[in-house]
Amino acid sequence: MNEVFEMRCPLPFREYPQVLMAHGGGGRLMHTLVERMFGAAFSNPILDRRHDAAVLPASPHRMAFTTDSYVVRPLFFPGGDIGSMAVHGTVNDLAMSGARPQYLSAGFILEEGLPMETLWRVVVSMRCAALQAGVSIVTGDTKVVDAGQGDGLFINTAGIGVIEHGLAIEPGSVAVGDAVLISGDVGRHGMAVMALREGLEFESAIESDSAPVAEPVLGLIRAGIDVHCLRDLTRGGLTATLNEIAEATSMGIRITEEAVPVRGDVSAACEVLGLDVMQVACEGRFVAFVAEADAEQALAILKAHPVSADAVRIGTVELNGGAEVVARGALGWDRVLPMPSGEQLPRIC
Amino acid sequence: MRYVAEYRDPEWARRLAEQIARVVTRPWTLMEVCGGQTHSILRHGIDAMLPAEITLIHGPGCPVCVTPVGLIDAALQIAARPEVLFCSFGDMLRVPGTHGDLLSAKAAGADVRMVYSPLDAVSLAMRHPDRQVVFFGVGFETTAPATALAVVQAAARGLSNFSLLVSHVRVPPAMEALLSMADCRVQGFLAAGHVCTVMGTAEYESIAAKYRVPIVVTGFEPVDLLQGILRCVRQLEGGRHVVENEYPRAVCDSGNEPAQRWMREVFRVVSREWRGMGEIPDSGLGLAQAYARFDAAQRFGMGTEWTPMATECQSGMVLQGQMRPTQCPAFGTRCSPEHPLGATMVSSEGACAAYHRYRRPKVTS
Amino acid sequence: MCLAVPGRILGIQGEESLWRTGRVDFGGVIKEVSLACVPDAQPGEYVIVHAGVAISRLDQEEASRMLESLRSIDGLSEPGGEGA
Fold first, then answer.
1. Are B159 and B105 found together in one domain?
2. CA B33 – CA B186 distance, rounded (Å)
3. What residues of C are in contact with residue A348 (Cβ under 8 Å)?
């Protein structure tokens, strides 16, 4: 990917070092921005045709379709930025249906005054992430808003993927007794971003786990694993995701707390700030629900992919009184993990 | 993490719990003072490990929970001023005042910033000389040294744009207030480890002697808590009532003398209202005269008188150990972390929040 | 209350005690904290940090002593040392 980072912006910054209202105005300035920045970085046969709408080839398969918006602050963090996060997040949403991600749209809302170099860095990052994930950014939009109204940069994406299997990968397919697997260690993204937060700054080697996870998912499907459900972890972390599934299935989920993988420095950062690591945001992690009989093979397949090399079983689906998520603690006692309420805040008490 | 993980060892915890079961011959009621200890007890299931004879009552050691509503209202008024940059620990941001909390004030446009340390607020004041930076100084004696350092640093730098809303509280008067209540059932205490790190253990000697209660200075990890309970129960079984230190790696008898010196320079003892418990004499720390110019309440002309609003919240009873959160009619129904009626449900280590967060499953398999 | 965490001092800056700070390693996370309340603390030692301020040095001898006594619990013997 090094050649991408050497790529010089075709739009010279000294001409327009900052985004202006006119860059969203539909005229020459916007045309130049779209052509020479977005068009150059994202170039692919569909985008290069420069239609208002991307014309996609027909497919005999079911399609998966998703949308998301990215408003992350700060724009750049260890291990990623708003651009790479946008691509990975959309790809992963598609992957959670077992779809092979193919096409993305990218809508940009830019704040007047945003340094052009910042925008270029984000665009290059998106190009790199798209290449890595094997997707094309085929259409997009650009708007500019008044200074003070945009937090710098927002990105909206939509994604299309093709479903080349006949499985129903959704909460409705989850069954009592299913194994609950997680694709890797938790809490990296949230703590990587927290390290930069004004008033809380700390030094660490923690990088965001933002990454595309379509490959291991497709690996499971190709191997014939009957995947019941997949869900990627985002805000609210593991606890929120498990609660979502429990609620959607009306079934309980029991996990062993010590089985949940956490890196030492992520755990330490949570200790210092008084945070529960199981509620901290992740970006390149998912949980998978498979039949008990498939658990061992599914784990072996996941571990063969770099992004899920640390996959491990953390629990089982069960029937309990209230479709709750229950954790067996290190000292041998059970506690309920309720749905997190609101953003978890660092504490001193 | 070193010096943390060892004290969570399940085998040692189990053995200590067994020892407690072996030692106890009759029912005893203990109180752990500190909200952080409550949090740890419920999170790790310490209460479930104890023999039925031991009842744990959760004390008022949640400085966030006991901050008077009037002070939160003052904070909200100050934060709303356009020239103010209001700094607070994360703990305080969702505690409800009469109308809303600091987080909703931020959503409405107030410049409210979360900080990890009062010293960060001083840095902010230096970086923003055109703004009035105000720090919300809550906490027990554990936190008071940090606030004191912030004040001394601000004075040394001659900052005219830094002030504090001070609401520090002291543990010993609150313990005495509890013990003086006619229906107090507490027979032994686990004293707050980190408060004693700063203040030492001397203040508790007279309480132990006067009320004939054992007081064991205890840490926060499962092994610490179980050791503290074991020592307390051993004293009760043996008819003794002295101060013991279970946490000597962090607490010595005299406490932290440099910290106490900074505190004596910056603060004076005042009476303070505890939300849900009323006024307790000499239970607070306010700014000393020499540093009165840093008092935000004075600088912004705030009164902090408050007429209590009738509310369903029974946090006072919970804080005094008279009621368990689960016994409150509103618990989990009209009162939850999403819509808290009072501070004990909001604060991360308030007893109600801890019970809600760490509750046992409905059906155990 | 009083969330305080042990960490190891990596290095110290500042002469006068009020301004003395240290970079402290909490198991892979490094933060600069005030050492104004622990004037005798040295690099390599552990301190206990609350709200950005070290409120105590961690007494490693006492910690070892407690861990030793815990190891000797076999259900029959007393844990080491009573009294404040």
1. yes
2. 11
3. 2-3, 50-51
CATH of domain A2-163: 3.30.1330.10
Structural domain range at position B340: 315-357
B268 and B193 share a domain?
no
Q: Can you tell me the distance from the alpha carbon of A309 to that of A224, in angstroms, rounded to the nearest whole number? A: 20
Say if residues B48 and A333 touch (Cβ distance below 8 Å): yes
Residue of B nearest to A239 (CA): B357
What is the model's pTM? Answer: 0.91
Q: Mark whether B128 and B197 lie in a shared domain.
A: no
Per residue in A137-184, pLDDT (tens digit) is: 999 999 999 887 656 899 999 999 999 999 999 999 999 999 999 999
> Between B152, B192, B244, which is nearest C2 by CB?
B192
Interchain CB contact of B190 with C (< 8 Å):
no
Within 8 A of B4 by CB-CB distance, chain C residues are 5-6
CA atoms of B73 and B165, how far apart (whole Å): 11
Structure tokens at C2: 């009083």
The angle formed by the CA atoms of residues B315, B320 and B324, to the nearest 5 degrees, is 65
**What one-letter code names the amino acid at C43?**
P
Which CATH fold topology does A171-336 show? Answer: Phosphoribosyl-aminoimidazole Synthetase; Chain A, domain 2 (3.90.650)
Is the domain of B285 the same as that of B330?
no
Residue carrying structure tokens 């006067």: B210
User: Would you place residue B359 in the very low, low, confident or very high pLDDT band (cuts 50, 70, 90)?
Assistant: confident
Contacts of B45 in chain A (CB under 8 A): 329, 331-335
pLDDT per position as a tens digit, B248-302: 999 999 999 999 999 999 999 999 988 777 889 999 999 999 999 999 999 999 8
Class of domain C5-71: mainly beta
Q: Do the chains contact at C56 and B256, CB–CB below 8 Å? A: yes
Q: Is C2 on the interface with B (CB under 8 A)?
A: yes
In a mutagenesis test of the A interface, which of B50, B89, B338 is the best target, namely the one with the most A β-carbons within 10 Å?
A: B89
The CATH number of the domain holding residue B223 is 3.40.50.11750
The interface predicted TM-score (ipTM) is: 0.91
Q: Which residue of B has its CA nearest to A265?
A: B1
